[in-house]
Records
---
Amino acid sequence: MAVITAPTSADKRPSKALHIETSREPAALTLPQKMGTKLWLPMFAMALIGFVVALILAAVRSSQFADGDVADLETLRHLTTGFMFLGFTGVFAAISFAIARILGVFRVGGGAVQHDVGDEVQSLEMPATGRAFIGLMMMGMMALLLGSIMHIIVGLAVPSAAEADLATSEKWFLFGEGIRRVGVGLYLLGITFGLATIISVIRFQAIRIRQLT
């Protein structure tokens, strides 16, 4: 491992050192970048399926709202919410995997340029923002999946229109909503760290290009 330091900015404040790894061979994709390349499109497809199913369930619930059975309406409410947030899980996952894919393109492309000019290949090690991105993305995905699956299970298990059953259903609905909100927050925070990682990579490659020239 080596350390490269960016030039000072106009206000003379030193930039933080960047930890890099060197090789004589072109850089290869890391495991998260390989996963991002393969999984962003399936996650996007999952999002579309979740949203379409949720839209159909919402239309069915709306058509039965005036004279439908209360227990059936409660079941449809849970199912609609569950599939809707399965769709959101897919959207956030697709964005996260697309960020990993972009980072992989930068890594491989930058390494290929350095290798072609005959210099050693320097690649930026995963910064702290990258590790935070992966960790928050995983926690956000688990929270959203837990909340969505819980809604589906509770919705299918609503026994009757009795007041006690509806109160229990409402309690689980509010509990699931809390889990979903936490999941969305974790996902958005993780995506923010992912974008910060892209900025770090661009900054590193700009320094490296100046060195090569």
---
Amino acid sequence: MKEEEKRKQNDQINTLYEQAHGLLRSKKWRNALDKIVEIRKLDEHFPDTDGIAEKAKKELEREEQEAERQNKLAAMYADAVRLLKEEKYQEALDKWQEVKTIDQKYPDRQWVQRTAKRRLAQKGYFEKKKPTKLPAKPRKIILIISLSGLILLGFIGVFIYTNQPPILSKCLYVNNNPLLMESKLSSFPVFVDGKTTYPAEWADAQCYQLYLAEWTGQDCTGIKNVASTWYVKNNEQKIYFLVRIPKTYIVPNGVSLAYFYPYPYVNSWQHSDTMSFGDGKPLDEYGWDGQTWRDDTSDGGTMDTRAKSTQADQYYWYEFSKPLDSGDVHDWSWKAGDKVGTDITGNLMIGSWGNLPAGGGSTFVCRYIQLLLEK
């Protein structure tokens, strides 16, 4: 029996290693690393003779460095666009030149250089010569044509910009319990639509890669078997999450952030609050009794959660937002600068529930976290 078990284990390891090879060839570095992790769970001394893990890590590091470079360029370019809108044309032009110094091929999608040069030239001309005043009707026609052209150019620019690949921040790999997450202070707006609406939407968020653990019936200390990626940030009024779960691990029915407070725990939690996405819609609930939640609006509260989900080829995506302090008596009351969560102000739990792939049954997976709200 031992020999048969060993043979089956070796067959499984060989299959996983072949899959890791295929993922490496397809440039799916993260998935290749996940396969090596699965192998190491079966045999912690497995020799990665082809160096798949090392190659994948190097490529991930290269991509992360490139992402950091693109984040820096995106922030500089955003400054150039802001200066242009503030009619600081020379400063906008100087900032654009800084971008060009780093990347000669960086696209000027908002036409900073052309617009700034034209406006500077026009400004110099009109200071020297007063333009001839046109009759009212021709002036109106020219104004309408000019505005129509600008609107059309704006739509074209927005279309080109929003169809660029997303710029996502570098991820940290965390395994401690509870997990410490830092919510970065954000200057980029978020459109809660379940995806990265424009390239830099989540560029200034903090990213964490972690495994969610099976719920044991008492806490989140079971087998850590569901990979997930969590982007988090705040703007001093709201907390924002973008969550990614690979389809190979679970078929989620929902994802949630739940808060049980105040600390310390005495017999039972006095209050509880959650923002989640389940049954195809956002949920704002409170009053966990060990089996069910209650909807905030059922007892004089308000619906404050914004959430949406989408699917890609390999992942489920969830996007959330909720006020730090909505004023709703059922909701948590936080402020920028607070550190909240497990063993500090209460228990803070992230989790997902759904079905395991290939008919593996239903499951709930979770982790306890501490959350630092940057200000």
